[in-house]
Amino acid sequence: MNASRPELSWLEDPRVFAVNRLDAHSDHTWYDAAGDGLRQSLDGPWQFAYSPCPDQRPADFWQAGACLDGFGEIAVPGHIELQGYGQIQYINTMYPWDGRRAIRPPQIAWEDTAVGSYVKTFVLDQALQNKRVCVSFQGVERAFYCWCNGQFVGYSEDSFTPADFDLTPYLQEGENRLCVEVYKHCSGSWLEDQDFFRFFGIFRPVYLYAKPALHIEDLWLRAGLETDNTTGTLSPRLRLSAAQGASLEGCTLQCTVTAPGGGVIWDGPMPLQAAEDGFFYGQPVTLPRIRKWDHSDPALYQVTLTLRNAAGEVQETVPYETGFRRFGMNQGVMELNGQRIIFNGVNRHEWSAEAGRAIGPEDMFRAMETFRRNNINAVRTCHYPNQTLWYHLCDQNGIYMIDEANLESHGSWQKMGAVEPSWNVPGSLPEWKDCVVDRARSMFERDKNHTAVLIWSCGNESYAGEDILAMSDFFHANDPGRLVHYEGVFHCRAFDRISDMESRMYAKPDEIRAYLESKPAKPFILCEYMHDMGNSLGGMESYIRLIDEYPQYQGGFIWDYMDQALWQDGPAGRRLGYGGDFGERPTDYAFCGNGIVFADGAEKPAMQEARYWYDTPAHRAAHDAENARRAATCTLPALRAGGPLTITEGDVNLGVRGDRFELQFSYTEGGLASLRTADGNEWIWRAPRPALWRAATENDKGCGFPIRSAAWMAADAYPQVTGWKVEEKTASCVRIRYTFAFPSVPGTSADILYTVTGSALRVDAHYHGAEGAPELPVFGVRLSTLRPAARVCWTGLSGETYPDRFRGATFGRWAEEPHIPAYLVPQDCGVHMGTHTLTLEQQDTARRTTSSLTVQMADGKPFAFSALPYTAQELENAAHRDELPPVSRTVLTVMGAVRGVGGIDSWGTDVEPAYHISGQEDHTTSFLISFS
């Protein structure tokens, strides 16, 4: 659409989404004959005014010579809300105005639609002068109007693809003024209901670019690979333009292809054929003996196109890296270069804890390093096209991409989990079709040259209808060399033909088996799985095993890459804030924290599990064999024989002294009340108790486990000591048993048996189940130290492990300071499975060990343990880490039974059956405290 005057009514009209905007084009760069890049950045400080609603905006700020006295300054790129204006808001599926404004598509809440007025003054660089000049906005949320030197330039929606405008008619010598008016809401807001923080403003780079007299407006290299996997093909398609007074008549194109090592493998003229569709087609080139592109060898060849005029003068040079690969479907299986492909993927929002979605190159470089380090071979650009640099990095690193259009209308068809599409958009509404197809076209045109893009996605969680079908038809008609993805057809099978593959979210392994056993026509992928909210990612093995069983199961994409959280000033200093922390309502609180890395980019403990399962079967087998070898050859130091025990019988305490220790068993305290080592250090704060509760994880809460098993929280906090019995009392052995009942869980009980010899204290704990008792989260023995331990060392599996998440760990000797990982919400953490021995250390100010306490397995049976600075109850009561009390002790829990953490989802699905702990069955744990 073209227009010379802007209209506010466009904001509520889904038929108006681009006014005077240039056609979308490839993301190639070009250089003139002098080698100049012909690009001028407008990033940096802009003059800025914020208005809470359109009625309060400076409506005439765009006029030439307008007074800007009330304007401040803002950084571009950047979100308006992260620079001191407006309201930060995180929300998942509902629309941000839910419960505040009663509106339906395509309406907007005018009184809540903030406006950002931007002004940039610039002088055109010398290299750009006397040429056609355009401005490119790489990303503006959510709708904007643009003026240059007092004249209306254009209007655009779609926050995540570039919007280019021709400035040539409006530029003047010397200083120019570019004015941009950004609106937080428009009809397109109904299409951008992604699970993320809701921002607005110019959040991606802005730059000017100039076109030489003859210019390649659009380029599609169309690199291919023959079935021999060694012969590459190039069939370029170009759109050319000529400046006024210049002509394309007689122009020529030179093509040079350079191999990854730098050698030229093809160099020559490429005859062009003009076609009726307005494109120029280059004569196809065949390249023998090339290296095919894939994850293991992402070989890229540089193609350089040189455009000359009829006189032979160089007008423009365009370099572009491409790979040669062949992707498609064969008998219901997706294949890359003739081989079945497996997606070991993640979903990735663009995110920075400092800058939100206004990320920079360093954020992308760090993410790619993390991908490569952890065997991630695929990414879904959830749920919008990403910055162009990310696509180049994926090309270079062999990362398979599902490139997803900027479309999610989740709140229009699913409410509180129920499918209710009565007012779904875009649906089959004709007035919405053009705008969603335009979103598909803009993504396709920009990204079509990227070798890494294997699959186009029509968007996310927008139900289905004729409009999304039109997007799919567009992709299929324009790009037969890629497949089309859309998960939403799962909820609306009438439009199943939209997607070339069966794609689901959070399907359980048995549901996937049922589909694959039905002899389906389409392969299966999980576009989202393993919901990594907090302490999660348990049970990944059940999905990976499907790969070997079913050729049509082709992997999945973990949800998701990075926690979405923002640095904020909390009560105790700087902290990572999540939904609700910024005073916004409505919100979905900590549901933004689902990453396999924390918001600061550090890897979560679960990453070692993803790294293991995303490795090759051969590497996994080697890892398992090495772990088994190390564990089998691990020998514990022999217990040093001690002398006879000295027993002191008091009225309240039974004292036992050996060569290197002194113990007191209290009758009133109900257990071991003192453990003093040879150095005189007291280790015990209060007598150990049965461990029956853990701080609920996000997955526990999501499936209702704490509600079903809440009685164990009371039992853990308030066990009843029902008696004690001294079973043996000699100079060589003292044995005393304490028994416990749990009034909150009638019929259940436990006992802890302490056996003292001259060399060790053995602890045997036994839980006695009862019919009808709820499931346990844990069973073991828990004690708190008198003072915090400075370090815990253990021999066993590395990192944080659980029964359903330990295969990626490495057996060895490890050490750390007792701590909790940086989960946004404190919860159970820090469990170490398969432990042979552990040592708590006290240290002086010089970090020298002054005292130590060693626990080791009994009867050759490894145990699980955690050594944390907080109790389960303290963790349970804190919504943020900075709400936890000052550290005063170390809480050591030695466990014989541990509930898994799960990961199928975080809103209903329990951990897999094998990782439950029955409250009706008995459980035991045993360990030794060594006095050697």
What do you see in this structure?
With 932 residues, the chain is mostly beta strands. Helices cover 13% and strands 34% of the residues. The strands form 14 sheets. It has a nine-stranded antiparallel β-sheet. It has an eight-stranded parallel β-sheet with strand order 36-35-32-31-30-39-38-37. A seven-stranded antiparallel β-sheet has the order 1-10-9-12-6-3-4, with no helix packed on it. The model has no long low-confidence stretch (mean pLDDT 97). The longest helix has 18 residues, at 430-447. The termini are far apart. The radius of gyration is 32 Å and the shape is elongated. A hairpin with a 2-residue loop joins strand 43 (653-658) and strand 44.
Q: Say how many strands there are.
A: 59
Main sheet: strands, sense, barrel: 9 strands, antiparallel
Q: What is the general shape? A: elongated
By secondary-structure content and strand pairing, the structural class works out as: mainly beta
Q: Which range best describes the helical content: under 10%, 10-25%, 25-40%, 40-55%, 55-70% or over 70%? A: 10-25%
Task: Look at the structure and give the mean pLDDT.
Answer: 97
Terminal-residue CA separation? 84 Å
What percentage of the residues does DSSP assign to strands (E)? 25-35%
List low-confidence stretches.
Answer: none
Question: Number of helix segments?
Answer: 12
| Radius of gyration, in angstroms, nearest whole number | 32 Å
Main β-sheet, spatial strand arrangement: 47-48-49-50-59-56-55-52-53
